Fold:
Amino acid sequence: MRIKIKIRCKQCGERFTLRGKKDRGRIETGFKQCLCDNRDQFEIEEEGMATGIQLN
Ligand SMILES: [Zn+2]
Structure:
């Protein structure tokens, strides 16, 4: 399942938008670290979660 992921660095505030893969609840992006060498402090947001849901 391909998804779009938004990552925000909690250290420097840099934002990244990546395409990733979701597999059994785990998200893989290949993203390793921010420009500021931060590797752990991120806010991760999955985009398009509501796609495919329709209310009639
Ligand atoms: Zn950063």
